[in-house]
Amino acid sequence: MVVYCPATISDFSVLPISIPPLPSFPKTVVHHVYVRRNSPKVPTADDSRSLFLTNVPVDSTELHLRGLFTALIGAGRFESATFDDERNALHSLADATPAQLARQLVFHMNNNGGANKKRKREEDAEAERAREEAASRLPGTWTRTLRRSGSAAVVLLADEKSVEQVLKAIAKLHKSKRYPTWGEGVGDRVPALGSAWLKAHNRLSYPDRDAVQAAIDAFSTLFARKEQEAADTAKRLRGEPDEDGFVTVTRGGRNAPASRNEAEEAKRKMLEKAEKKKAELTDFYRFQLKDRQKDEQEELLKRFDQDRKKVWAMREQRSKFVPEK
Q1: 301 and 250: one domain?
Q2: pTM of the model
């Protein structure tokens, strides 16, 4: 049965998808996903080639969205998907899953061939920290995550042209009424739901002791290293005066008092900072600058008039001079 739906709602394009029947509900239904260009509050370099999706199905995975966009515009256009209930691995590698880490490492290897050595070392160190964080987590208990109803996702495509093609393909669906089938092409690459999913959860809820012990050991090592780094940072800051010339005092005092030279240097920096701030605030507006120039001109004219009067007075005094007989 074909259900009518508008092609657009506000600035969203309505993408109808066909949900195949299930043993628990043996009927085909139409689900509507709302799509628009991605325009986050904090712009990024990839906004022009990404789409924002909302009301995605609760069983959505990256493979499901890949199959959906492949049905719309063909293979090779879809790059990745990030769901709103997942932390973006690009912003925090420490919370990335092993699969996300592997994908990012391959991406950097393929696209950063001309990067300098310093940047490569920083990326390697960041990836190493992410692997340590992943190793310190306890094993998961679910083979597949279900989304909240009405969840959103951001899909990254190959280029801006692909975004145009997706929006045009969605508009054509409302004329042809041939909606793409959800889950088509996914096959066995995604863990099954239903009873098999719950059985797997029950089995994973009792992980192997060696795996749990390995995670605990990794977490303890990571925690001790971070604690030592924090202590080293606090120790270094104890004897260093800040920009205002103050020395941070922590419990137990500082290692040693700041030397007189350091205090004088901090005071000098503080005065320079105050003078710079004062200079920046002086004549901040154009009318203030004009008023100051006008006052300077009036002061010059006033001094010139005073000097002229002095000269005339001296001349008059000279003309009245009478030498003694």
Answers
A1: no
A2: 0.57
